[in-house]
Design brief:
Radius of gyration: 22 Å
Number of helices: 13
Order of helices and strands: EHHHHHEHEHHEEEHHHEEEEHHEEE
Largest sheet: 10 strands, antiparallel
Shape: globular
Number of strands: 13
Structural class: alpha+beta
Length: 372
């Protein structure tokens, strides 16, 4: 699909088949980087509801509430007319180059669909990225300053930013490397679990990953999602998971590349945060920014279960009463290896694939060029 100003616009919508979003992103970015698979992009990238993906001036865009005034439309038309090359044949190679270098990938879905898409990208340098959050958690949107539920005004602004194509932020990209693989797989794992998995929000082991694993198969989640109360899912399952995860002691050891160490005898969870929120609005890492070239470790443990429950509301708010507890360890790092005394569930942006006892959290050199 060709967008405004010669940009190539490709869409990824939320699917029910694991791997679809990753495959779309792989094909789109392989194509724009000069790779193979161009003939199959259209089949994979067109949403089941084409009205959710559009370019300025199309009736589909107006259906999303982003109608432009007649004056705006006339101004854009005049600007486009002035920019038309006098000799089309001379301009063709340059136009093709612009489309290749300025591809916009738009994701319509939740945090899981965004994560799957980011894990399929082959070349971040030639890609601009946008998303319209429609999930139950929407921690990516929340972490970037949007409302819990996207308002019509915010939706209009998002779509206009997509149409404009201007880079508004360079977002850090986290990577989780599995140093030791096990055969304990999630009930909803992909066909192939790669050693390296990217994340934009957070990645962690223990309690938070256990909650994610349970939520993926919870009838409670489906009910609350229909009621637009997705964050209640995390809270309801969290209390149940706390009893099972924290019932026996698991030791936790971490060391950064610059030698900083952390140890816990009784871990609840240890996670690397790129943005402040996870679990549908729990502000576990209020200092995480997503664009400062570092991740934020948050490790919680070595305290009674009742004390954890007491401070859970504070963790939701990200209050200092929770964050400054002596058994809530937090500091920034760029690369860190984590080991546990037994395998625990591992998640990346809430997506769970397997249990492991040895991972490395780090940042990629690439950044994601956001236009929303």
């Amino acid at each position: 699909m060709q967008g405004a100003h010669g940009r190539a616009l490709q869409c990824v919508h939320e699917t029910h088949r694991p791997g679809d979003a990753r495959e779309i992103a792989r094909r789109v970015t392989s194509y724009t980087a000069g790779g193979s698979g161009a003939e199959q992009i259209d089949r994979y990238s067109v949403p089941s509801d084409p009205d959710v993906c559009s370019v300025p001036g199309n009736s589909e865009l107006k259906k999303l509430g982003a109608e432009k005034s007649e004056e705006e439309a006339e101004t854009e038309a005049e600007a486009k007319a002035e920019a038309e090359p006098e000799a089309e044949s001379e301009a063709e190679p340059e136009a093709e180059s612009e489309a290749t270098e300025d591809t916009v990938l738009v994701v319509i879905g939740g945090d899981g669909t965004v994560n799957e898409t980011v894990n399929g990208v082959q070349d971040f340098s030639s890609l601009k990225f946008a998303f319209i959050p429609t999930g139950s958690g929407n921690d990516l949107a929340r972490g970037l300053g949007f409302s819990d539920r996207i308002s019509d005004e915010e939706l209009q602004r998002m779509i206009r930013h997509i149409a404009d194509g201007k880079i508004l932020r360079h977002l850090d990209i986290g990577n989780t490397h599995i140093n030791h693989r096990t055969d304990i797989l999630s009930r909803q794992h992909p066909d192939e679990v790669p050693d390296d998995q990217r994340f934009l929000i957070s990645s962690g082991m223990g309690f938070d990953a256990g909650v994610c694993e349970e939520a993926l198969h919870s009838a409670t989640k489906d009910f609350f999602n229909r009621m637009h109360l997705g964050k209640i899912t995390y809270g309801a399952i969290a209390y149940r998971t706390l009893r099972s995860v924290y019932a026996h002691k698991v030791q936790f050891d971490g060391v950064t590349t610059d030698g900083k160490k952390v140890h816990m005898d009784h871990l609840l969870f240890g996670s690397a945060f790129n943005l402040p929120y996870e679990g549908g609005g729990y502000r576990f890492a209020p200092d995480a920014s997503g664009d400062d070239g570092s991740l934020m470790l948050v490790a919680i443990g070595d305290m009674p279960a009742l004390q954890i429950l007491w401070h859970f509301p504070g963790a939701h708010r990200g209050s200092h009463g929770y964050y400054d507890l002596p058994h809530v360890v937090h500091f920034s790092f760029r690369s860190m290896r984590i080991r546990t005394s037994e395998p625990l569930w591992l998640h990346t942006d809430g997506e769970v694939a397997m249990k492991t006892d040895d991972v490395t959290f780090s940042l990629l050199e690439d950044k994601l060029k956001l236009i929303v």
